[in-house]
Design goal:
about 45% helix, alpha/beta, about 20% strand, single chain, Rossmann fold, about 210 residues
Length: about 210
């Protein structure tokens, strides 16, 4: 039995904070987990920028409402569902993710949450430290074989722990620093990579 664990932003949908930066003209919000490995450092930066510019939750939600999944993302999820269970593991926030997850056919998502007061984002709550790797390990403990796909620093532990781990459309710095991980840039090649590794692992499995 297989379970696939996918990052959301950069793999299935565009980066939310980058879209907010483009719509607001606030370039300081372009930084993502592709640029800063320490998640708390990144979020502290974002919270400060939101405060300085008076950006509200509703401002961000209006940007998200205009966003769409990557072309081919829904079909890729359907392809994976034919081979097992599919789960989205993301370091985004449920208040951001809901409209995009609906467009993806409502796959199960595990992510974090925001603390919002009077339309202002005042804090964030991390569901679990290193949640992506922890969730993947839990599935392995339930005797699932695992696929993991991500694009950023915060995905690396999950990718390394998976039976099949791959980078999808990562930035050049992540590729350069982690040459041990396979890289693909379109869904068709990603499907080929995953299927090939599934077949290899099945052929290598002992006959009972």
């Amino acid at each position: 039995m297989w379970v696939s664990c996918l990052d959301m932003e950069g793999v299935l949908v565009p980066e939310i904070w980058v879209n907010v930066a483009e719509h607001t003209g606030i370039d300081a919000l372009r930084l993502t987990t592709r640029d800063i490995a320490d998640y708390d450092e990144l979020m502290a930066h974002r919270m400060q920028v939101l405060y300085e510019h008076g950006l509200k939750m509703s401002d961000i939600q209006r940007v998200i409402a205009k966003m769409r999944p990557y072309e081919g993302a829904v079909e890729f999820l359907h392809w994976l569902r034919e081979r097992g269970e599919v789960l989205v593991l993301s370091d985004t926030f449920i208040q951001f993710a809901r409209p995009l997850i609906e467009q993806l056919g409502n796959p199960t998502i595990l992510c974090h949450s925001l603390v919002v007061k009077d339309d202002r984002i005042v804090d964030y709550q991390v569901r679990l430290a290193d949640q992506k790797r922890a969730a993947l390990r839990a599935f392995q403990g339930l005797n699932f074989q695992t696929v993991a796909v991500g694009d950023s620093y915060n995905d690396l532990a999950m990718l390394r722990a998976a039976d099949i781990g791959a980078l999808f459309r990562p930035p050049a710095n992540v590729v350069t620093e982690h040459p041990e991980l396979p890289v693909t840039y379109d869904y068709a090649k990603l499907e080929t990579l995953i299927q090939s590794r599934m077949d290899e692992l099945q052929d290598a499995a002992p006959v009972l």
